[in-house]
Amino acid sequence: MRDVIDELAGWWERGEPVAMGTVVATFRSAPRQPGAAMLVGPGGQAVGSVSGGCVEGAVYELGQEVLEDGAPRLERYGISDDDAFAVGLTCGGILDVFVERVSPEDFPGLGDIVADVREGRPVAVATVVAHPDREHVGRRLVVRPEDAEGEGVVGTLGSSRADDAVADDARGLLAAGRTATLEYGPDGERRGEGMRVFVSSHAPKPRMLVFGAIDFAAAVARMGAFLDYRVTVCDARPVFATKTRFPGADEVVVRWPHEYLREEIDAGRIDERTVICVLTHDPKFDVPVLQLALEGPPVAYVGAMGSRRTHEDRLDRLREAGVAEEALAALSSPIGLDLGARTPEETAVSIAAEIIALRWGGAGERLAETSGPIHHHRPEPAPADLR
């Protein structure tokens, strides 16, 4: 929903019904991830994409049907056959798309969800996309972190048992910034089957911390923003750490790097989605911040810039500081993939490529010289018949 939220909110605020098709599960080489959405709006307008062009026409037609009768649908799209006009994915993937009507009457809480997403407040929407009783399909819970009174859930799936199970699991996904389809028994039984619930997590953007206010940092900050990270550039030197020099950053902080990182860790603002790029290649900055980054809470990535000689010297200094070999093994240094990069912009691409490869399990090889699936995915259960 995030990728079409502005158009969706506009139509909702004007009271104009919209059909929203959302990818709720993918298998093999499906081109879009769960959460990708397409809208069929007033006057037949189409916004967004669920497959990069393969099945949009079929989803568009299904959206028009849903707009007409209001009944949500779950449809599976697989490999197209030999007919060039058949609906399917030529890439060989499979995806499930849930299409529902969205309007102030159908989805009265959407305005609050849009406000949460725009303000960076965590919120998850759990929607029943399949159930033995068709009356349950389309029911939803809106789940937020628990407040002081232990509240934070709006709506119901039909029973307190189902509500409690789904709310607990949705909070876990929200904390990890993950979107997924979960399966339960018809009344929320955890070891059952029959009810499939799509949990769309809208967590705040993952963070990218860039230490070192150098020209390479400006390029990395721009690349981080392009990849939808919330980017912070930090350096102890006020003459270099200025917003003018780093327009691509969300914030520029003048602090000793290790002091800032310690503050962020203590405040709970560092998590498993955070990426840390140390670009100073100066031991008095590098070693203290890298020690914290490697010994602190688990993060997605820690990389450090420098030559191989600088890298070896840095490792010796970190060992002297007491950093264990197991922790040192998580350090990406020299930073980035071997692309032959020379300019700051090329180096930023190589760093981004390494971050992406580690996130999805890619090897960084040329696709033309490999075989097998092009897209890497988190493990998903094998597809079952739609219920």
From TrEMBL:
Organism classification: Bacteria, Bacillati, Actinomycetota, Actinomycetes, Micrococcales
Domain XdhC Rossmann, chain residue ranges per copy: 208-355
Coiled-coil ranges from the UniProt annotation: none
InterPro entries: MoCofactor_Util/Proc, XdhC_CoxI, XdhC_Rossmann_dom
Protein name per Swiss-Prot or TrEMBL: XdhC family protein
Domain XdhC- CoxI: from-to ranges: 11-78, 118-185
Region described as Disordered: 368-387
Organism whose genome encodes this protein: Georgenia alba
